[in-house]
Design goal:
The structure is a single chain. By secondary structure, this protein is an alpha/beta fold. Helix 9 crosses helix 10, helix 10 packs across helix 11 and helix 36 crosses helix 37. It is globular, with a radius of gyration of 41 Å. About 9% of the residues have low confidence. The structure holds guanosine-5'-triphosphate and magnesium ion (MG). Magnesium ion (MG) binds next to helix 6.
């Protein structure tokens, strides 16, 4: 009606006349239709009011198209619709319909019926079957479970849309009767099969079966429908006939596939790989043997006699197991560490995981380390290996062996115990994961089975228990049945030429490797590739068609591959090398004559540095694994990142293999170079196996080798490697136990930009490699602030997963994420001054940034001028560096050292200085809290006793009387530098680093608490006793309320050490301060604070106290000096006892060490000083100790020990003998009024 506006129906009628209205759209209120438009042909009614009676439609006899979509007909659609016999199109989508009126069947002219998004869960109304003129029927998401047989009468139907219904039980064959169909949409219908009758739809042009995840097969007859032009199978990942890979490529590829099939004989096979994993000696091979022989068979093994030729599994072995309906290919993995590397050749994307757990091993580990660890070590770690590589694997089967090691009654208990622990491990992993996957991290692939919390890790029906009982056969039968059930899913149809191809391949038994070209010459490429892929999946050959360098080879005898790899990783290497030496014969390699001496030299270099002379590799490969040509073997090992090379040095070719080297990376890489750019990658989630880190080292070397400027030198170690290129060097170090990797470039200012590039690119490559090989691993990246590193700050700032690095997680090489990375990096290029996250931003809030951005953020290029500016800035920083206290400037090697003067520990200490590297710079970050990290010296002020009750106490007899304004004297003895244990061998001294900080803190505290402090540093033993004795002789004590002695030195349970390594008895100190020797303090409180080890024991949770030693002091004890006042007795001393009024605090429990941080001092003194500052105003010393000091040290030391297990846990002690139960309050900051007691 154009834009004309009418207010009433009459106005319309007056203007246009009632017979001229043929199209009408009404929204909401509906006018009297019979009056308004009796001749209407197209009627659209939206939002029909509830009280509206559709009966008024009955007079619209001309109506051809009726739109009633999105109205609510929950109560049923009016029968009146059936009377509209002229209707050709009826739209009833989203009408909440549950049924249709019977009268609908009278719509014999109806051609289009739209019923989508209604709820026909009781079945499609029969009325539809009567609409024989229908050409289009839409039934999207109608909760349909089947189609009525009556549907077959819709012989005119051309388009049928059935998407989003649930035809799990099968789609009715009635579809086949719809012979006019040209388009059928079965998207997301949970179909497991397609109806056979589909092949009768001779007019079909378009078929959509996408997103039917359970669909396994498309009948060839369907593909024979010659009008069919489009077939969409997206998401039908379980298709095996034809394989999904073929279906994805579209109808033409599918037809090709069937064509090649039709040329031979169609073969349907049901073969499935079963991955059998578990610890060595768990009983895997015994299970395989038992299954194959149908009775319990045990292998012959010897745990003690290594020369015994036993049935250990090397790498992996593949065996057939014929089941009722299928064949299983049992891949029996070797459990020993050295063979794990071979798994990369064995793991298949889709296999059936079977875990073997020995009760004997589970119990043994449980006794030592608890059942959680036992479940982890016997099973969880294996699940981790398997699911990390193949996250989409289904649920695993579980077989317990060695049930004979447990009493019959306990088997069930043990089993449940194990299953509970596994469930807990999964829960923990998921909890960690959910915390880990921050929003920014993007979508990580999930381990399908383990993340499905609805399903148990092991299905109860798939858990089996085996013992050595040879009569037991039902277990074997049941396990076979379970395997058969699982294997049947793995049905595959393979080309008819299968027989010929397999025969050809297996005929080449004399060769271990066949050239692919040879097969391709004889057979069609498509066919032969299908067969080879099938053979690879079932384990009869190995053909890695995804790896370019290996694609031309088909490896026939798998065990030769394993031999080749394990040649280099034999677990009894020493013996093996000796054996080789005995049988060695000189040989010639590329004009080089290798004699015995040269051979030995090469072996040593290999064992020590992982550098393998190609002459030695050649010898090993040709002598001991002559099955492949030398070139093929090298290619194989290189493709699987087992070796890197060749590297040329003085015209000699070398290969690098980190696995074999014995020495480990020391920490030199950290201090290497002027500038250091460092990234840390942490792998969360399931733990990566150690060989993953080794392979990553080789990848690291490979990546850097690709750089145009060829590296000059390389170094490879078991836990890392380094490449030196001119003025810079790149390091890769892994910390397997902590599941983390550090990549660092040490460089000069001139090379800053290119070094950033190298660091980012290298990290990206390593991440891409690891995340594509171990698809379920969860990396996160931390960037250590280069500016802080330059300042040699032991606690450098870090950025965790900076936005600009996140895209590194992309596993798609060249994908969009990768481009994004460069955009991000560019946005940080240039030279604007910026903040260092740690320094400037915090200390100068609001101040101007001054640090050149390339020193904090990556940049890929810098002009000469900009480089100059960075250099100038850095030279300025040098002076700043000097201004930082020495503790901060120490090269960031040892962050912790342990007090103890005995030779053994001193040695340990020096080791720690090197090993401290392990603990890493960033370790220290967490070691102290933020406040502590800023400053080693505690800068607090005492809280004064202001509370009325506290003030009142000052005068009370229930507390020790306190002097005013000075509370007393405090004597501090701090021994830092000691004579080395063997001065002839080492002229140096053993430092108690960090003790200077303790001294500053303790002196500051007691000054603030109104004590007169007296400090002595570095006293020999005799001097220590002398100064204490002299202290007791000071007259002033008579005026003071208490005395404090602080001794900070090395010690043990009974002794304290002087810097001359002579010891004094702890009891001698007590004796000097006893009421008789220190009469001016008799009856007054004496607080003794000892920051020294109370022994050599380590308080570690494992209870490993093998170093625990109470051995007597190796050095002579210095005798107590005679005291002038020792004989003096006064009447008040008549009832006195030696320990009266003593409060003795020790840093650690008798027998144990106490810990100290190089820069921040000891746990104990820090806790003590803080507690006194904050709480001595309202707590007496005993309570203060219990509630604050002891608690704090305990918590802190447990926390640190959890991170760095070599740092002992620590438990300070307080012993006190207060007379009459008096309490010791210090009343800080309180000056009583003059009238009060003074
Ligand atoms: N008592 C008892 N011994 C068993 C049982 N299962 C296996 N064994 C023995 O345990 C040892 C190890 O068995 P294997 O089957 O070779 O172990 P594996 O898991 O294949 O070990 P690797 O090949 O090293 O990975 C052999 O001495 C077997 O005889 C069992 O249920 N009870
Ligand atoms: Mg075995």
């Amino acid at each position: 009606m154009g834009s004309l506006q009418y207010k009433t129906v009459d106005e319309i009628l007056k203007d246009v006349g009632k017979d001229s209205i043929t199209h009408l759209r009404c929204n909401g209120k509906i006018p009297l239709l019979n009056k308004l438009c009796p001749m209407v042909k197209y009627l659209y009614l939206a939002n029909i009011p509830e009280d509206y009676q559709l009966e008024s439609l009955s007079s619209l006899t001309q109506l051809e198209r009726l739109y009633l979509s999105k109205n609510n007909f929950k109560e049923g659609l009016s029968e009146v619709v059936g009377a509209l016999t002229s209707l050709t199109e009826l739209y009833l989508n989203r009408c909440q319909l549950q049924d249709l009126p019977e009268s609908l069947s009278s719509l014999t002219h109806l051609e289009v019926l739209e019923l989508s998004y209604n709820n026909f869960k009781e079945g499609l109304p029969e009325a539809v079957g009567a609409l024989t003129s229908l050409t289009e029927l839409n039934l999207i998401s109608c909760q349909l479970k089947d189609l009525p047989a009556s549907l077959s009468s819709l012989t005119q139907l051309k388009k049928l849309v059935l998407s989003y219904n649930n035809f799990k039980e099968g789609l009715s064959e009635a579809v086949g009767a719809l012979t006019s169909l040209t388009e059928l949409n079965l998207n997301s219908c949970q179909l497991q099969d397609l109806p056979e009758s589909l092949s009768k739809l001779s007019q079909l042009e378009k078929l959509n079966i996408s997103m039917n995840y359970e669909l396994t097969k498309i009948d060839e007859k369907v593909m024979a429908l010659n009008k069919l032009q489009t077939l969409c199978c997206v998401g039908c990942t379980k298709l095996i006939s034809p394989p999904y890979a073929v279906c994805r490529d579209g109808i033409h590829t599918i037809r090709e596939y069937f064509k090649s099939l039709s040329q031979g004989k169609e073969i349907e096979v049901c073969d499935a790989p079963v991955a059998i994993v578990g610890n060595s000696l768990a009983g895997k091979t015994s299970i395989v043997k038992s299954l194959r022989q149908g009775k319990r068979v045990l292998t012959k093994r010897s745990e003690s006699d290594v020369s015994f030729i036993d049935e250990v599994t090397k790498g992996f072995e593949v065996h057939d197991l014929k089941l009722q309906e299928s064949t299983a290919n049992l891949i029996d993995h070797g459990g020993q560490d050295v063979y794990h590397i071979a798994y990369q050749y064995a793991l298949k994307e889709n296999n059936i995981p079977l875990f073997v757990v020995s009760f004997k091993q589970f119990l043994a580990i449980s006794h030592k380390k608890g059942s959680r660890v036992a479940a982890k070590e016997t099973c969880w770690d294996w699940m981790s290996h398997l699911y990390l590589s193949c996250p989409l694997l289904g649920p695993p089967l579980l077989v317990f062996t060695h049930a004979d090691a447990v009493s019959n009654q306990r088997v069930k208990v043990r089993k449940n115990n194990f299953l509970e622990e596994i469930a807990r491990l999964r829960k923990n992993m998921l909890a960690e994961e959910s915390g880990f996957c921050g929003e920014k991290r993007g979508e990580f692939q999930k381990v399908l089975h383990l993340s499905n919390t609805q399903a148990p890790v092991f299905h109860p029906e798939e858990v089996f228990i085996f013992s050595d009982d040879q009569e037991e056969t039902s277990n074997i039968r049941n396990l076979k049945l379970a395997l058969d059930r699982r294997c049947q899913v793995f049905k595959t149809v393979i080309p008819g030429a299968w027989n010929e191809i397999t025969e050809f391949v297996t005929d080449q038994t004399d060769k271990s490797v066949i050239k692919l070209s040879l097969i391709e010459e004889r057979f069609s490429i498509k066919e032969s590739h299908t067969v080879l892929r099938y053979m690879h999946n079932t384990g009869s050959i190995l053909w890695y068609n995804q790896i370019n360098s290996l694609q031309p080879y088909v490896f026939h005898q798998i065990h030769h591959i394993i031999e080749t790899i394990t040649l280099l990783f034999h677990h009894r290497a020493e013996e093996k090398w000796k054996e080789r030496l005995d049988t060695f014969f000189p040989y010639l390699y590329q004009d080089r004559r290798v004699n015995k001496a040269k051979y030995e030299e090469m072996v040593e270099e290999f064992q020590h540095d992982g550098i393998l002379d190609s002459a030695l590799l050649y010898y090993l490969l040709t002598k001991e694994s002559a099955k492949f040509s030398w070139e093929v073997s090298v290619e194989l090992l290189k493709s699987f990142k087992v070796l890197h090379g060749p590297v040329h040095k003085r015209a000699i070719e070398y290969y690098l293999i980190p696995f074999a080297s014995q020495s480990s990376m020391d920490g030199s890489w950290k201090t290497d170079g002027d500038l250091q750019l460092r990234l840390e990658i942490q792998f969360g989630g399931l733990p990566l196996p150690i060989y993953a880190f080794h392979l990553a080292i080789v990848k690291f070397l490979d990546v850097l080798k690709e750089e145009p400027s060829l590296p000059s030198t390389m170094m490879v170690r078991n836990n890392g490697s380094t490449i030196y290129h001119g003025e810079s060097s790149t390091h890769f170090v892994h910390f397997f136990k902590e599941q983390r990797v550090t990549v660092q470039v040490s460089t000069s200012t001139q090379l800053l930009a290119s070094s950033w590039k190298r660091l980012i690119e290298t990290t990206r490559h390593i991440l891409e490699y690891i995340t594509s090989t171990w698809k379920a691993c969860r990396p996160s990246v931390k960037v250590v602030c280069p500016h802080c590193l330059y300042l040699r700050d032991p606690h450098p700032g870090t950025f965790v997963d900076p936005d600009w690095l996140c895209p590194v997680f992309s596993t798609v090489a060249g994908g969009p994420m990768q481009c994004q990375l460069q955009v991000y990096v560019k946005s940080f290029s240039g030279f604007q001054p910026t903040f260092c996250s740690k320094r400037e931003a915090k200390s100068k809030a609001g101040g101007k940034p001054t640090i050149p951005s390339p020193l904090v953020y990556p940049c890929y290029s810098l002009s000469v001028d900009e480089t100059q500016k960075v250099t100038e800035y850095l030279s300025k920083v040098i002076s700043q560096r000097r201004a930082i206290p020495s503790a901060h400037l120490r090269p960031p090697v040892a962050s912790l050292s342990i007090q103890n003067v005995r030779g053994k520990r001193v040695q340990l200490q020096s080791q720690l200085t090197i090993e401290g590297d392990d603990s890493e710079l960033s370790d220290s970050l967490d070691y102290l809290n933020e406040h502590e990290a800023k400053s080693a010296v505690i800068r607090l002020s005492v809280k004064p006793s202001r509370k009325a009750w506290a003030k009142k106490l000052f005068d009370s007899s229930s507390v020790y009387a306190m002097s005013n304004p000075k509370r007393g004297r405090c004597l501090v003895i701090n021994n830092i530098h000691f004579v080395a244990p063997d001065s002839s061998a080492d002229s140096g001294r053993i430092e108690r680093t960090g003790s200077q900080t303790d001294q500053e803190n303790v002196v500051g505290l007691f000054k603030n608490l109104s004590f007169v402090t007296n400090i002595y540093e570095d006293l020999p033993a005799k001097e220590m006793l002398r100064v204490i004795r002299e202290e007791t002789e000071i007259e002033d004590h008579k005026d003071y309320g208490m005395f404090v002695l602080v001794v900070m030195t090395h010690g043990n349970e009974t002794h304290l050490y002087g810097t001359d390594r002579q010891a004094i008895l702890r009891t001698s100190v007590n004796h000097l301060l006893s009421p008789w020797n220190f009469p001016r303090m008799a009856g007054k409180s004496k607080l003794l604070i000892f920051q020294a080890c109370s022994g050599g024991g380590y308080d570690l949770p494992s209870g490993d106290i093998t170093h625990f030693s109470r051995s007597p002091d190796p050095t002579p004890t210095v005798a107590l000096p005679s005291t002038s006042s020792s004989q003096s007795t006064s009447p008040s001393l008549a009832d006195a006892l030696a320990g009266d009024d003593f409060f003795i605090m020790n840093a650690s429990f008798p027998g144990y060490v106490s810990e100290r941080h190089d820069a921040h001092g000891s746990f104990f003194i820090r806790a003590l000083v803080e507690a006194f500052y904050k709480h001595s105003c309202h707590r007496d010393v005993k309570r203060l100790f219990e509630e604050q000091i002891a608690k704090k040290v305990r918590t802190k030391s447990i926390e640190v020990n959890n991170r760095y297990p070599r740092v002992s846990r620590q438990q300070p002690t307080l012993m006190c003998w207060p007379t009459d139960g008096k309490k010791l309050y210090l009343f800080p900051g309180y000056t009583p009024p003059p009238t009060e007691r003074q």
